[in-house]
Predict the structure.
Amino acid sequence: MSSRILIIEDEQRIADFLQRGLREEGYQVEVQATGPSGWIALQHGTWDLVLLDWWLPGEDGIQLLRRFRQRNRATPVLFLTARDAVEQRVEGLDAGADDYLCKPFAFDELLARTRALLRRPDQADSLTLDYADLHADLATLRASRGGAPLDLTAKEFSLLCLFIRNHGRVLSRTRIFETVWGDQYDGLSNTLEVHVKELRRKLEALGPRIIHTHRGRGYELSARPDPPT
């Protein structure tokens, strides 16, 4: 039986896009557009995952999420928000979200996060990411390497989390830019390269190179040595 997903999103264009895309992936999907109707669905439905928008008519997503968690519900919740400030993301996670995604987002990233949340048996693990000697805490937005803290900016932290989630895979510059910056990659800006270079510098101060460049393809987080040029 396919997983059941509840989408609580008032922007019809986004809701339709998510519903269509997730149904094409084989999920059972229901959409609600307001806080009150979303609350009724949360109370009376059995869900494997909830995609919850921050801004909703009647009752915002934060209030809805807090009420939901007070009922000791363990259903994973992926928070959708246009708010990308660190303190706002922390507020969403502290309210009980298992993960967050800033709008606009790429559907393939939402799909990857959906799969990850659906396969996690223990929700306590959903707030941390680990690979090799890297550790990222999504609740505190802090990261470390080999136990030593990393002083990262918000964008560097988002980059690191994206790399950890996709370790061993080559991520294109377009995919990285659209996911972290939420904008189309024009191929001209060096913003991405500057941030990757700085993240690399901080990581390599504590250990060997772990972010590798694949010429013409993108970047890969891997404990393996650099690929041949």
User: Anything to note?
Assistant: The chain has two domains: 4-121, 128-221. The first strand starts at residue 4 and ends at 8.
